[in-house]
Design goal:
By secondary structure, the chain is mainly α. Helices cover 72% and strands 0% of the residues. It has 15 helices and no strands. Helix 1 packs parallel to helix 4, helix 4 packs parallel to helix 7 and helix 10 runs parallel beside helix 13.
Length: 265
């Protein structure tokens, strides 16, 4: 009989309580996990988002909780993918946070995310291509792309389970943010995600023709950028563009090198 406001306050308190791993692992023993999962489907966006947030905090770097959660709710990845598609960004953002926690280091959760049944990669591409999503959420999506190729095991799983067309769609979504280059922080996340995809040897040379032109243009744009307060950051971005150019040219023109960034321009 609790009101929505009371439920939200209870979930906010629970957020702090589950930060210690031992407390998170006691959540199911004390009878709190099943109601928490139920609240993730509550009509109130505020309650849905906070329930996902608690799940994400509990699962972060906590294999025992992740295992318990999968046992209690075998379709948890599918539920969070659906929440990630929620039009309320407070919900989709916390669902993405929970997904990131669950996917890190869990082969079975990654398999579920990549499966056609749950469509995690399709949902990720849809959100990244959306023009109505905030830059903040876009940065989190780009970070997830980097996380998905963050280890050799994760890269191998991507190669085995992710369809070629899905990889191309994710790459196109990443490059969209690289080419726009209007928000430097978003641009950095996109460039890092592109760098990580190249290092993971997941993309193919035929995917990079337009990206080469984009990188050349960005190098010129960054060379002409003038912001004394952020000069150190801009120098870092120039070096990052140079590193990406080198990786691309290893794909396209074996033995060629990119032009060194010139911070004096």
């Amino acid at each position: 009989n609790a009101t929505d406001a009371e439920l939200e306050r209870a979930l906010e308190e629970l957020l702090y309580l589950v930060e210690p791993i031992d407390n998170a692992n006691d959540l199911h023993t004390l009878g709190g996990l099943v109601p928490l999962i139920t609240l993730a489907s509550h009509p109130s966006p505020g309650i849905r988002s906070k329930a996902a947030w608690v799940l994400g905090v509990s699962a972060s770097n906590n294999l025992q909780f992740q295992t318990t959660l999968r046992t209690v709710a075998p379709q948890i990845v599918g539920l969070l993918v659906e929440m990630f598609r929620d039009p309320e960004e407070t919900v989709s953002g916390k669902a993405l946070y929970a997904l990131s926690s669950l996917l890190r280091g869990s082969e079975q959760n990654l398999r579920d995310f990549y499966s056609s049944q749950y469509g995690g990669m399709k949902a990720l591409a849809e959100v990244m291509q959306s023009t109505s999503v905030s830059n903040r959420l876009q940065r989190k999506c780009l970070q997830l792309v980097s996380d998905l190729v963050g280890s050799q095991e994760a890269r191998d799983l991507w190669r085995r389970l992710v369809a070629r067309e899905a990889t191309k769609t994710i790459l196109a979504s990443v490059l969209k943010h690289v080419s726009q280059g209007k928000d430097w922080d978003l641009f950095e996340k996109a460039l890092l995600a592109f760098h990580d995809l190249l290092k993971a040897d997941i993309v193919q040379a035929e995917d990079l023709a337009q990206a080469v032109q984009d990188m050349d243009g960005l190098q010129v744009q960054l060379a002409g950028a003038d912001d004394p307060e952020r000069e150190e950051y801009l120098s870092y971005l120039r070096a990052l563009v140079f590193d990406v150019q080198k990786l691309m040219k290893e794909y396209l023109y074996e033995g060629d090198t990119a032009t060194e960034p010139n911070d004096e321009l």
